[in-house]
Amino acid sequence: GEPFSVIQLVSFSCVWVALALFTAESLYQFKRAQARLHSAAEAKP
After folding, report:
1. CA 18, CA 13: separation in Å to the nearest integer?
2. pLDDT band at residue 22 under the 50/70/90 scheme
3. Would you give the distance in Å from CA 25 to the centre of its chain?
């Protein structure tokens, strides 16, 4: 393979950082929604 230029390395890194942030935020939102559903189910008689 051909070597990465600095621009390609920075772009590649930005894509992977964005993917990691998107995944982490999605997991956080999912766990938060699950906790809300769980607490709402416990509150009902």
Report:
1. 9
2. very high
3. 4
